[in-house]
Every structure is written in C-alpha cells, then in structure tokens.
Amino acid sequence: MAIIPRSSYYDKEYRQTAALIRARQPYLIRNIISGTALFAFTIGVYAFTINAVAQDDFEDVQIPDAPAQPPHTPNAGVEKSVSAELLKKSSR
Fold first, then answer.
1. Over the stretch 38-48, which tens digit does the pLDDT of each residue have?
2. CA-based nearest residue to 85, from 61, 62, 12, 77
3. Does the predicted TM-score (pTM) go above 0.70?
4. Helix (H, G, I), strand (E, B), or coil: what is residue 12?
5. CA separation for the pair 7, 13 (Å, rounded)
6. What does the alpha-carbon distance between residue 18 and residue 16 come to, in Å, rounded to a whole number?
7. For 23, what's the count of Cα atoms within 13 Å in the CB-facing half-sphere?
8. Most CB within 10 Å of its CB: which of 3, 17, 49, 53?
C-alpha cells in the first residue's frame, strides 16, 4: 500500500500546521469574496430562469381538438376475407 508523502504543511496526523494557516491567510478574504460572487451569480441565473418560465402562460399555443374516434365496425373480419378473395382471384 502506498504511503502518502508528507508535506511540511501537515503534521503526522495530516492536520494543518501553523505554517499552512499563515500561507493561506492572504487568500482567505479573496476566496470568500469570489465564492460569494459565484454563488450569487448562480442563484441569480436560477431565479431569473424560473421567473422567466413562470411568466409564460402558453395562451398563444393552439391545443388540438380531441382525435376523432373511428366508427365502430362490428364486421372487421369481412375486410380480411375480401382481401383474401382478391388474392385468390389475382393468382388465377
């Protein structure tokens, strides 16, 4: 099993040392501001999209009528026998 190489910024339990905390401190405020701006932009785009979609009521879209029901044909088997008779006549 490979051992993770130790860095001078972590102690033997892989916790941050004072040196790592000091090295990261100048970037802490910038990272917080950047993260907040990115989060705000993402939420803004999401809110705008939901608001834009919610405003559409689809009144301009025409809804088609219900499909016409075919008439009930109780003798549906007659069509099959007619086509079979036509095949017999054409093979003669």
1. 999 999 999 99
2. 77
3. no
4. coil
5. 11
6. 7
7. 8
8. 17
